[in-house]
Amino acid sequence: MIRVLFALLALAFALPAEAAKTLIVNANGYTLDGNGTLKRFQMLLVGDDGKVLAALPRGATEPKLAAGDYKLDARGRTLVPGLIDAHGHVMDLGIGLRQLNLAPAISLADAQSRIAAHAKANGTSTWLLGRGWNQVSWGLNAFPKATDLDAVVPTRPVWLERVDGNAGWANTAAMKAAGITRASKDPPGGRIVRDASGNPTGVFTDAAKALVEKVVPPLSAGEMEKSFEAALDHMAKLGLTSVHDMGVSPGAWSLYRTFGDEGRLTVRITGYADGMPAMEAISPLRPTPWLYQDRLRLQGIKLFADGALGSQGAWLLAPYADEPTSRGLQYLDDARMKNLFSRANFLGYQVAVHAIGDAANRQALDSFAEIRPTYGDGFRNRIEHAQVIDVADIPRFAELKIIASVQPTHATSDKAMAEDRVGAQRLEGAYAWSALRKAGAHLALGSDFPVEPANPFYGLHAAVTRQDREGQPPGGWRPDQAMTFRQAFAGFTVDAAHAGLMESKVGSLETGRWADFILLDRDPFTISPMELHQVVVEETWLAGQRVFVRKAP
């Protein structure tokens, strides 16, 4: 019976009700065209195929509708294209929504209180899992320890990922379950944090996380389904109609296909396989075609050049200012990186490489330069994060036609830590969005959720103000690297669509594109930039069908 119901839902999702047109009237509409020109409109006409027929300006004659067509009065609300997050982690978002979230914790003591409460509320769980801790925001000069967890959960294993996902924090029970001892070796590309005597302290960075994760019980199929549902609902509420999903596993892909078959995909997912093994398991010969009315495709491969700045895993050209014995972690040697890039492009896949440190960014640019004569520029290969770049390497993004996929809220979250890590001099090329744009590089904007909140208006606010949502620092952090609102809006619409090879399908409300759009409670083009993070999405539409409407309070 349930399968029959899903089949009926799929049919309803695939075909607009009675093949009807939809007309939105009295809208305060904005869209960018293919040239980046801002267009205003008051009416939006959507065809029975879910694509835009016309965006009509004020004063235009209202189109005539037939019986069965649908008309919506926007009541003057602002209507813009659905927003695109160019770098997110869909399943991690959904799982995080259903597990312990330590992101709101303001201190170690606060985190311990939240962990203890979670343990009490989940008394039957074999392991306690969660994410979001950040020792920097807690004012600690070092990582937390297993003993800090033992004080509140002494017997059950606890495993908590850091906010950036590049480190994990275990209690003694978890380390015992994983067989971690003083004799345990650091794996390539990872580090077991130790005390002065060489004993593991409870934190595992980058590749070392796998030493514990191998014994963490996997989530059930039912829990994975609920997590994906939670992620879809969350994105729809925030006005996200497309996402570039960085690191798709074979299990996640199978779940996405199931939701697509059942007509339950309420966001467009451009997938990037979690490395070569995942690509080989999902589609080993070539990228998949677009499926389910352009709602799902595997088109790229996600690779890693280094770790994260917060966990001192980003690979730097010079030692860390606050850890002079370390330059971070190099994940791939030069030959391996070039071979992986070459193989990906040979198979038709777009490369998306995580590079945060200036050494990692240079290595990635060097590798792209070497394969470019063979494969050209058509793949629109990407560097994800592009956070700390040597000033000399900034022009190379444009020269090599490499897209800089950046996340504005990283800058406002990292501002208190970045200078401590790399020193003031190297900040000149850090989070340097304006410098990249002036050099001619293409930028695509995202959030890196769940590392940062998925709300794209937080990203728009950070891009324009270079401030956190408490208005700090006054005047913005390195404000010369800020974007205009129009630039930032493009980064979450047409520029993100370009980075995902979808500019002919989404990102604008031009004729022939999918009618993916959102209705807002205020006009982001006219309000103070300081208010951007307060914008509320009232409705989200995908292919001319409403997938979210905010209930009246």
Descriptive tags:
single chain, 8-stranded parallel sheet, 6-stranded mixed sheet, 17 helices, Diaminopimelate Epimerase, Chain A, domain 1
Walk me through this protein's architecture.
There is one protein chain. With 553 residues, the chain is an alpha/beta fold. 31% of the residues lie in helices and 22% in strands. The strands form four sheets. It has an eight-stranded parallel beta sheet. The protein has a six-stranded mixed beta sheet with strand order 3-2-7-22-23-24, covered by helices on one side. It has a six-stranded mixed beta sheet with strand order 9-10-11-12-14-13, sandwiched between helices. It is globular. It starts with a helix and ends with a strand.
Strand content: 15-25%
Number of helices: 17
Tell me, briefly, the overall form: globular
Please, what is the average pLDDT? Answer: 94
Uncertain residue segments: 1-18
Q: Which CATH top level class of one domain fits?
A: Alpha Beta
Widest beta sheet: strand line-up: 8-15-16-17-18-19-20-21
Considering DSSP H and I runs of 4 or more, what fraction of the residues is helical?
Answer: 25-40%
Q: How is the biggest beta sheet arranged?
A: 8 strands, parallel
Number of strands: 24
Measured distance between first and last alpha carbons: 35 Å
Radius of gyration: 23 Å
CATH topology of one domain: Diaminopimelate Epimerase, Chain A, domain 1
- Which structural class best describes the helix and strand composition? alpha/beta
Tell me what the CATH architecture of one domain is: Roll
